[in-house]
Write the structure tokens for this entry.
Amino acid sequence: MNASHARRHHPVFCTVVPPHLLDKAALSEDSRRADLAQRTLERDSLLRTRRRVTAVRGIVPTLAAPASDAPERTVYDAQHRTRLPGTKVRGEGDPLSKDATVNRAYAGLGATYELFLKGFGRRSIDDSGLPLDATVHYGEDYNNAFWDGQQMVFGDGDGDLFLDFTVSVDVIGHELTHGVTQYTANLAYRGQSGALNESMSDVFGSLIKQYSLEQTAEEADWLIGAGLLGPNVTGVALRSMKAPGTAYDDDELGKDPQPATMDDYVNTHSDNGGVHINSGIPNHAFYIVATELGGKAWERAGQIWYDTLTGGELTPRADFAAFARLSTAAAVARYGDGGAEHQALQKAWSAVGVPLAG
């Protein structure tokens, strides 16, 4: 068992739509918008508290027989209730459902499994063939999707501010990557370590989309949640890795608050110390590395990030500087000192203002 597996793994409740965005919507003069946003915030708060209480003992992966190279997916339908997992509607190898949401969830689970297997030799979330479960049609007009430490859950959105949360494969990949982080570096979900946790999910969520679409770094849009915002929202996505702070600028949802560099780092007590906001900084660093190296981002940039996340030296409370140093060391270990990879890492962390020394 490697160093990362020797740790206790504490699952956290992670949503793709950050609280600060829903807080804005809850202040809307449109009573329906405000009510739905408030309902989602209340549901998220309840689930977050429940996860914290039930996660006290943590998770210790069990030693099992070698995992196969095939996923084991199950999709459930909550039928607009909040009891999980719901009714099973599609299992591994079953034919297409008549419900497009079910099929998108099933395909997204598969795309995530494939990228981690083909790109990094990882067999599912825990590297031991963990079954991938997802529940769709959660709640009434629920404006979020989340990983609860055990499975994926998708709301349908309200059709106004947000659409069905299965429409973006990077959102599915984002949430499942929280599981990968849970079973490896186990980054604490607060402050800079929490922002790194969120950034890992954005990085691999984007890579899963790029892998699925066979895109190079130059062809990718580097958006998280493109197609998720509703028809009445002024914006293109939840976040932009290429240009943090530009994903949306809307009368109801406000302006995207993500910084691209440490000069604009946001000190806040909300959202566990701004985990969804300050993740823009390591996100942008990854974008710079990937575009500097060019080609398929999962092959070199993604490999360096994966090596850093799973190498056993990234501690649960690591800050940006620690990740920067370890990622640079990982690039040197795999590709050598002074090469394009090493230079790309140095350029990226310098550009976002994260020091490599000290």
Observations:
- Residues 1-7, 52-63 have pLDDT under 50 and may be disordered.
- The beta strands are 14-15, 73-77, 87-91, 132-136, 145-147, 152-154, 223-224, 239-240, 249-250, 254-255.
- DSSP finds ten helices and ten strands in the chain.
- The first strand starts at residue 14 and ends at 15.
